[in-house]
Write a structure and sequence with these properties.
Low-confidence stretches: none
Strand content: under 5%
Number of strands: 0
Number of helices: 3
Largest sheet: none
Radius of gyration: 12 Å
Shape: elongated
Distance between the termini: 38 Å
């Protein structure tokens, strides 16, 4: 992930309430493309939401 891509990643995640710093985004996803990073994070958030839903039900 490039510095410019990390900005896009941060903006995309902020739209769904997932706040990241540029340093965090680059550290976690430095070897992935922007699309791979977005897909990975969205998948992780969906999995987390499913766990929360199961616990509450």
């Amino acid at each position: 992930m490039t510095l410019n891509e990390s900005i896009i990643f941060i903006e995309e995640m902020e739209e769904i309430g997932d706040i990241w710093t540029q340093e965090q985004a680059i550290r976690v996803y430095e070897h992935q493309s922007l699309q791979e990073a977005l897909n990975d994070r969205r998948s992780s958030l969906a999995e987390f939401a499913n766990i929360i839903e199961r616990v509450l039900n």
